[in-house]
Amino acid sequence: AINDEASLNWRYDFIRTYLERDIPQLGPRIPAETLGRFWTMLAHSQGTNINAAKFASNLDVSSVTVARYIDLLVDLLLIRKIQPYTVNIKKRLVKSPRIYVRDSGITHALLNIGSYSDLLGHPVVGKSWEGFVIENIISILPQRVRPYYYRTAGGAEIDLILEFGIDEKWAIEIKKGSSFSIERGFHEACEDIEPHKKFIIYGGSEQFPMRHDITAIGLYEFLDILKTR
């Protein structure tokens, strides 16, 4: 979601109203300024692993309080936590959840990104696209399908794993542009978990095969495939 001036102003109003009126009406007594700062910090940290100690230090609160803030925003459907995929392999795995602000337009508003050109020049652009893709995919997943990410301490990584049960899982790498390369870490991660299907979701719309049984595909074309599951 790229913001024009009207939609950006609407999102600013939404953020302010949510912080100053809606959340207090739900019960939590958290200063709006503190929660607003935290929400903005999460937007800056889009698509990264939760570092409660760092957030706690920046907010001058405890790690327990940060965990409570995160749980609140998850319950309010404002952020999403993606759990790590853990397998019994002889590698050290990253096991902290990964976080995304669920609405990409809200992400941009929190970061004061007001135009497409501003977004393209911002460090969050890749993770913003990643969060947008993941949110669209999860929104249509059957209840039996579980989403995860995978990362080892050595850098092997898969942006999104869809587990359809014990017998099938898909590995998904997300790329913003229409031209891209596949990092070694994706191949190494696929060797670890042995997915049944491997996809690269990119910024184009054509579907085509790549080496190592990988399929490159646009987001909406992928969603059409997923809807048939």
Specify the helix fraction band: 40-55%
Q: Beta-sheet strand percentage?
A: 15-25%
Strand order of the largest sheet: 4-5-6-7-9-8
Distance between the termini: 27 Å
Q: What is the count of β-strands?
A: 9
Categorize the overall geometry: globular
Spans of at least 5 consecutive residues with low confidence: none
Q: Indicate the structural class.
A: alpha+beta
Largest sheet geometry: 6 strands, mixed
Q: How large is the radius of gyration?
A: 18 Å
Mean pLDDT: 89
Task: Put the structure in a nutshell.
This protein has 229 residues and is an alpha+beta fold. It has nine helices and nine strands. The two termini are 27 Å apart.
Q: If you had to describe this structure to a student in words, what would you say it looks like?
A:
This protein is an alpha+beta fold. Helices cover 45% and strands 20% of the residues. The chain is built from nine helices and nine strands. It has helices spanning 5-26, 32-44, 52-59, 63-75, 104-110, 116-120, 125-139, 184-193, 219-227, and strands spanning 48-49, 79-82, 98-101, 146-151, 157-165, 168-174, 197-202, 208-210, 214-218. A six-stranded mixed β-sheet has the order 4-5-6-7-9-8. A hairpin with a 2-residue loop joins strand 5 (157-165) and strand 6. Helix 1 (5-26) crosses helix 2 and helix 3 (52-59) packs across helix 4 (63-75). The longest helix has 22 residues, at 5-26. It is globular. The mean pLDDT is 89.
